[in-house]
Amino acid sequence: MKEPIEGSLPIASAGKRTNLSGLKFDSSAAQPVIDLILPAHNEVESIQFVVSSFYNEIITKLPGRLIIAEDGSTDGTREKLFSLRNSIPISVFSSPQRKGYAKGVSDALKKCSAPWIFFSDSDGQYYPSNFWQLWKNREGYDMIIGRKLYRSDGVHRTVLSNGFHGMANRLFGLSLRDADCGFRLIRKSLIDSVVWNVRFLEYSFWTEFTIRANLAGYRILEVPINHSNRPHGGTQIYKPSRIPIIVLKQLKGLAELYSNTRNGC
Question: Assuming Cys at both sites, which of 44, 58, 134, 239 could form a disulfide with 185, CB separation 3.0 to 4.6 Å?
Answer without folding.
Answer: 134
